[in-house]
Design brief:
InterPro entries: Cro/C1-type_HTH, Lambda_DNA-bd_dom_sf
Strand content: 5-15%
Distance between the termini: 12 Å
Organism: Loktanella salsilacus
Number of helices: 17
Largest sheet: 6 strands, mixed
Strand order of the largest sheet: 2-1-5-4-3-6
GO molecular function, one term: DNA binding
Shape: extended
Structural class: alpha+beta
Protein name: HTH cro/C1-type domain-containing protein
Radius of gyration: 29 Å
Helix content: 40-55%
């Protein structure tokens, strides 16, 4: 149902403008505006633009409502709260009427989630990290040694000068070792107050670095290494970036930008057409499309790569998709491709929202022989390219979600667990 009129009414009431006055300012009758506000008359074009200007709003905000990605993030925030205290059904209305507050809620929820995940990560590291266990053992050993030596020196028994010198040297050596180990532990856990947000994993740290250039690596186009513009990364993230760069360079050699970019434009960035025209593997073409330099006519393209277990190994999202590593919906076309290695899968995916978000998805799973020989199970990698779709919903569109805990689809046959917050929406 088109709720443009309801949004006009809500924003008019927020601005404390009488219906008669608003109608007069755009040259229509109050009765006609009343029909519009109760969604009994469709509105668009010049009149919508005039009403938006009178209310001091962007016409798109009245016509389309709140951004679906923002609504999804707010629902994620609601999922962590008590269902009885959160009016989840009014999430989209809240985002549309108070976008500034909505962004603040979403940002604070993201920060809370990041802190919770970092706390869990640190707990796991404390429990399982052998390096940390070794460091703590070193601290305890040094403290015990210093305590024992001090007990001898302060005891009742007389210690000659030669042994005193030895004990003093031992205390100095143990204290030095304790100071070094303690400094390493502080660096392990602590971070400066003004430091940038800490990435939760090396993989996310690498993707954060890649996102600064849209995953485009100009140095790799020329066969170079990491550029001076790359941020300082942890050892784990730097290793992952090196692996990404090696594959990127191989893709760039196989599909040089000078020939690939014109072919992509001519094919309207359709990976199937580009793959057929250039005779290159579909997954390679999709990786290349998702990492193109910014072009005026190029649509935003996302990329998702996962292994046979469905674990996401690379994620580049697109506006409004709200993709997350945790708990991806099993109906995404990439998982269909995993069950049919070698077969290209193309589908329109529809995310719930007001309005809904439609994405054109292309996916394929490739079988990679195990490096240890044919007696070992093969490795499977699935790749999916995502592109925003502004056209009408296809008859065979696939209803997907960000994950069962956040998805408002109450009648989904693939649901694995109930939503964390009861969303009073039927889709």
């Amino acid at each position: 149902m088109d709720r443009t009129g309801s949004r006009i009414r809500a924003r008019r009431l927020d601005a404390k403008i009488a219906q008669r006055d608003l109608a007069q300012s755009v040259g229509i009758s109050a009765s006609y505006l009343n029909l519009i506000e109760h969604d009994r008359r469709r509105i668009g074009g010049k009149l919508l633009t005039q009403l938006a200007a009178a209310l001091g709003l962007d016409p798109a905000l009245l016509a389309e409502g709140a951004d679906a990605g923002l609504v999804g993030r707010m629902r994620a925030a609601a999922s962590a709260a008590d269902a009885e205290t959160v009016e989840a059904a009014q999430t989209a209305d809240l985002a549309a009427r108070y976008p500034g507050w909505a962004r603040l809620i979403a940002a604070q929820a993201d920060q809370i989630a990041a802190l919770q995940q970092r706390a869990q990560m640190l707990e796991d590291r404390i429990t399982h990290d052998p390096a940390l266990a070794t460091a703590l053992h070193g601290v305890i050993s040094a403290v015990t040694s210093i305590q024992s030596t001090a007990a001898i020196l302060t005891g009742d028994a007389k210690v000659d000068a030669d042994w005193q010198a030895r004990f003093h040297r031992n205390i100095f050596d143990d204290a030095t070792r304790l100071a070094q180990t303690s400094a390493a532990l502080i660096a392990y856990f602590d971070a400066p107050a003004n430091a940038a947000p800490v990435s939760l994993s090396p993989l996310e740290e690498m993707e954060q670095a890649l996102s600064q250039t849209g995953f485009y690596r100009p140095a790799q186009e020329r066969g170079g290494t990491a550029t001076a513009d790359d941020p300082q990364l942890s050892a784990g993230a730097a290793g992952l970036l090196a692996d990404y760069d090696a594959r990127y360079h191989a893709d760039a050699v196989a599909l040089p930008l000078a020939t690939f970019l014109p072919a992509a434009k001519a094919a309207s960035y359709d990976p199937l057409r580009v793959s057929a025209q250039m005779g290159r593997p579909l997954a390679q073409v999709m990786r290349r499309l998702a990492a193109l330099p910014a072009q005026d006519d190029a649509p935003p393209l996302g990329l998702l790569i996962c292994d046979a277990a469905g674990v996401v190994r690379l994620l580049k999202s697109v506006p409004g998709a709200g993709l997350s590593r945790a708990g991806l919906c099993p109906l995404w076309p990439i998982f269909t491709a995993l069950g049919q290695p070698g077969r290209a899968v193309a589908a329109q995916a529809v995310l719930p929202g007001t309005p809904d978000v439609r994405l054109t998805c292309h996916a394929i799973a490739d079988v990679i022989p195990h490096p240890d020989g044919p007696h070992m199970p093969p490795l499977i990698e699935a790749t999916m390219l995502l592109r925003s779709d502004d056209g009408p919903a296809a008859a065979a569109a696939v209803p997907v979600g960000a994950g069962c805990r956040l998805c408002p689809r109450t009648n989904c046959p693939a649901r694995r667990e109930p939503a964390s917050v009861s969303l009073a929406i039927t889709l």
